[in-house]
Amino acid sequence: MTLTTTAIRLAPRLHEGRPDAMAVWFERQLRSPGQPMSPQDARRVPQMRRLVAARLGLCGLSELVEPMQLLTSELVTNALEHGDGPVSLLLSCSSETVRLTVDDGSRESPRLGAPELDAESGRGLWIVESIASEYGGSWGVSPDCTKTWCSLTVPAAKEPAV
Questions:
Q1: Would you call 93 helix, strand, or coil by DSSP?
Q2: For residue 91, with 0-12 CB atoms within 10 Å meaning exposed, 13-18 middle and 19 or more buried, which class applies?
Q3: Sign of torsion, CA 76 81 82 84?
């Protein structure tokens, strides 16, 4: 029998310029090298996408839901495929930026690959880089290589139409 734990900690909503944060932690299923991801681990990706979308909606940042969901998919999938141990996700929102950090415990630094044209994988960090750039953000890896993060700039508030 495998015990899986998910813990979620929510900070207060974005208010008067104070940051908002959501943290999620879960265990991955152990598997041997070359084995496919378990169905339970595969379900974590859409779960994390839904949590990120809901939190951004609560923070009034619905315009960033779609790009942040895609970034969540890429970073959580990479963590499940290449990491060691539990996975944690931290979503931090401020009036200027939204930052997603995924910790997978791996000490091997993620890097942009050069996949073959017909390869089925290897493009995740290219997608992360492209989205971050399109939204005035950036991405990177922590000095100890255990965390991959990306940030997007919060779009300026639109003036009401008169």
A1: strand
A2: buried
A3: positive
In total, the chain counts a number of residues equal to 162
Amino acid of residue 53: A
Query: What tens-digit pLDDT sequence spans the chain (162 residues)?
Result: 343 445 555 444 444 455 688 999 999 888 887 788 899 999 999 999 999 999 999 999 999 999 999 999 999 999 998 888 899 999 999 989 999 999 988 877 766 666 565 545 556 788 899 999 999 999 999 999 889 999 999 998 766 666
The edge-to-edge listing of strands for the beta sheet with 6-10 is 6-10, 20-26, 87-93, 97-103, 147-153, 138-141
